[in-house]
Design goal:
Blueprint: E1 2-4, H1 8-18, E2 29-34, E3 40-50, E4 53-60, H2 65-78, E5 83-89, H3 93-102, E6 105-114, E7 117-125, H4 138-144, E8 145-146
Parallel strand pairs: 1-8, 4-5
Antiparallel strand pairs: 1-2, 2-3, 3-4, 5-7, 6-7
């Protein structure tokens, strides 16, 4: 498994296609996860950055602890954000469960905010993500990070 940040357009298209979006991302950064066949199996798009917050969109066929560490480190250490915000359709129970396991907390529900229904707003503070940012993973993360 390798973690990549370029080409961000490829990662952005992957995330958009998995989420059923057709629009292009603007002013964004991205992190992707490649499997041993060099196929993209996960992607994160960060956009809407206004310190101390950044919005995150994630899609994945596979995840790894190192990939989760990279997501948290980028937002909380590199950008010095205090929080990550994500929105998930209320009907998407699998993604809502993932957000909870990642440490995000449900902060509200926007009723009928999407053509498919209600949208849940999740927030992840750095203090809630500490389990993903641990020194014991730093060397392993550096070994699989491709710039």
């Amino acid at each position: 498994m390798k973690i990549i940040t370029e080409p961000k357009e490829l990662i952005g298209r992957y995330v958009a296609s998995k989420q059923g979006q057709t629009e292009e991302w603007r002013n964004y950064s991205a992190i992707g996860l490649l499997n041993s066949n060099e196929e993209l199996v996960a992607g994160v798009v960060f956009d809407g950055y206004r310190h101390p917050n950044i919005c995150m969109h994630i899609s994945a066929d596979r995840l790894s602890r190192n990939f989760m560490d990279a997501i948290a480190r980028y937002a909380f250490e590199q950008l010095q954000c205090k929080r990550i915000t994500g929105t998930i359709l209320k009907s998407n129970k699998k993604s809502r469960r993932f957000a909870h396991q990642f440490g995000a907390r449900l902060e509200g529900v926007m009723r009928d905010a999407h053509e498919q229904g209600d949208v849940c707003i999740y927030g992840l503070l750095k203090s809630d993500a500490e389990k993903w940012i641990q020194p014991r993973y730093t060397k392993k993360l550096e070994a699989i990070w491709v710039k």
